[in-house]
Amino acid sequence: MLIKDEMDRLVMIPGPSPVGRTILDALSQPTVAHTSAALAEIIRRCQDGLRFVAGTTAASPFLFAGSGTLAQEAAVVNLVRPGERLLVISNGYFGDRFTAIGHAHGIEVDAITAPWGTSVSPEQVQERLTTGRYMAATITHVDTSTGVAAPVPDIARVLAGQGVLTILDSVCALGGMPVQMDEWGVDVVLTGAQKALGVPPGLSLLLASDRALERRRVLGQVNSFYADFLNWEASMADPQVYFSTHPVNLFYALDAGLEIVQEEGLEQRFARHQRLATGFRAGMAEMGFSPFTEPNALAPTLSVVEYPAGIDDTAFRSQLAQQGVIAAGCLGDFKGKGVRFGHMGNITEVEIVQTLIAVANTITALNREVDAGAAVRQALSASAPRSEVAV
Fold first, then answer.
1. Which of the 8 DSSP states describes residue 329?
2. How many CB atoms lie within 10 A of CB 271?
3. How confident is the model at residue 386 (pLDDT cuts 50, 70, 90)?
4. In this structure, are residues 167 and 146 in contact, taking their beta carbons and an 8 Å threshold?
5. Could you give the residue ranges of the DSSP H alpha helices within 145-242?
6. How far from 101 is each of 73, 74, 151, CA to CA, in Å?
């Protein structure tokens, strides 16, 4: 059981994101029957809300209990047969995961990997496509190990031009930055509930184009029962039809989270994410931290920053937790050299300021001198809407 002070800490990792009171209240409502008309109505609203956020009117939503990893696997096994070729376009640890998933299912995987902190370019993808036929390709919209946002529209355009089915892993992007599934020609968009949608973890969320579903129908048997789109199809068309027990209360939470997204408006929500990211990085820069990520690839949903010289990773994150904020360690090439902060979902300047003060107090506790006030001022100035900036 978690101790009270652990539960009181602000979780600023790259997911799960802090969950607002409205969503928590929805989660705590009495559990109804998983095939009830009441839950079916909620699931349909969630399907419509996901279409709205993903920029699609035609895609078929698939929503079931699981994680972003399960959604990744579902996308691959429903589009690619064992022995066929999958192109993995990877900007870090979570892009690389598609390679492991492909291999687990006997799929022939070819990967393009970028140096950490940079992105694979459309030109690299175009060149690789000349080496042979790929049935599908994966793009990680935002890789949480590197903080890199891929140039998805341009890469998707290249893939579509060659008739390659496109899987977009938007786990750390959907709800925090634009996704235009129909306009970009993406065949599967996948995400989890716990990142930029601001909902507790536990849901695998996918949207599949007509082309993706047509591909699934010609595959025959696939290497999954639970994640098979065809097994879920009747239940997604009519959520009162049973296939597997729906995670009832998580749908309450998702419904509330998507309502918040729609009430805020997508343009306003994306602008808020960008403002808070800019402000947070300005405040961190004032204290000597700098992004590992190249400037033109910075994602608005998280920051992966390098420590000032002489800061020990374990000591920093341990002391930061004592100051009331949880951050994540770096992975792969950046492990031990920096720290990862999420700033997505429904957070505001309040959480940004709280985190910066905690970072300043942590550095002070590690016998270094920083000006918390200057860091906060830099953050608020950089994140203020233009109309609020003094001229």
1. E
2. 14
3. low
4. no
5. 152-161, 181-184, 210-219, 229-237
6. 6, 10, 23
Show the tokens assigned to 283: 């405040």
Per-residue model confidence (pLDDT) at position 387: 54
Confidence of residue 211 (pLDDT cuts 50, 70, 90): very high
SS3 10: strand
DSSP 53-112: HHT-SSPEEEEEES-HHHHHHHHHHTT--TTSEEEEEESSHHHHHHHHHHHHTT-EEEEE
The average confidence (pLDDT) of the chain is: 95
Q: What is the pLDDT of residues 318-366, one digit of tens each?
A: 999 999 999 999 999 999 999 999 999 999 999 999 999 999 999 999 9
For residues 149 and 298, the answer to whether their CB atoms sit within 8 Å is: yes
DSSP 184: H
**Can you say how many angstroms the Cα of residue 175 is from the centroid of all Cα atoms in its chain?**
9
* Dihedral (CA of 290, 294, 300, 301) sign: negative
Tokens in use for 188?
């599967």
pLDDT tens digits along 212-265? 999 999 999 999 999 999 999 999 999 999 999 999 999 999 999 999 999 999
Strand positions, DSSP E, the chain: 10-11, 60-65, 85-90, 108-113, 136-140, 142-143, 148-149, 165-169, 188-192, 203-208, 290-291, 302-306, 325-326, 328-329, 338-342
Residues found in the chain:
391
